Amino acid sequence: MRFVIMTTHANTHHTSKRSATLAAMGGAAALLGGLLGAAAAYMESLAPKGSPGVYRVTTPMVAALAVSSILLAIIGLLGLAVLARAKGRSYWAAITAAALVAAGVASLTAFSVLLAGTASESWGWWVFGFAGFTGMWIGLVVGGVHALVTRVVPRWAGIAATVTSVVLPLFNTETAAVLFAVPAALAWALVGGLMLREAWGALDFGHGHAPAVGA
Fold first, then answer.
1. Which of 108, 165, 206, 208 is the most buried (most CB within 10 A)?
2. Local structure of 66: helix, strand or coil
3. Gap between the Cα atoms of 126 and 118, Å rounded
């Protein structure tokens, strides 16, 4: 009987530590992704405007920062799901949010491929480009609402992530409205930092054990 109890405790300890580690990785990803996204939007706002009928040029560095930010956001949303599950709260909304953002990235990638070929930009935009941005937008809103409702991070952080994500349709790379991405990115960086703090405390490195994240 004692052996069974000790084994169960060891398994719980291992699961707790693994959950805390995954949540910490997700938090770090959301934090870094948010900062990179804010930097990309700000740098894009500084680029010269194109002449009438010509789009503003996005440098390879800005593009790399933006893509990295989105990919890290997906990892961050999955980390949010892990943290919610460890706390005994619903986590499917966070997984759905990650899936929506990932689908949006895939759609935008398809749009970029079409632009590199001979397809009509207008046709490609409405089928893949618009769908991609919409998917990512809805995913971030769902993720923000999840953080707010489950309260795996402080309520005010969930509100900030939700509100700033809701207004993202105003984002426009060709005008100063590109800066609408900055508060959204920073809000998610904040959520990531709070996730990281929560998970880091659960790992409790200094005492050599890992209490449950939801303790």
1. 165
2. helix
3. 16
Q: Could you read off the pLDDT of 9-21 as tens digits, one per residue?
A: 433 444 588 888 9
DSSP state of 47: S
Token couple for 176: 């100063």
Residue 51, number of CB atoms within 10 A of its CB: 7
Q: How far is 147 from 129, CA to CA, in rounded Å?
A: 27
Tokens for 21? 């580690």
Q: How far apart, in whole angstroms, are the C-alpha atoms of residue 168 and residue 144?
A: 13
Quote helix, strand, coil % in the chain, to nearest 5.
80, 0, 20
Rounded-to-integer distance, Cα 48 and Cα 116, Å: 23
Q: Is the pTM of this model over 0.85?
A: no
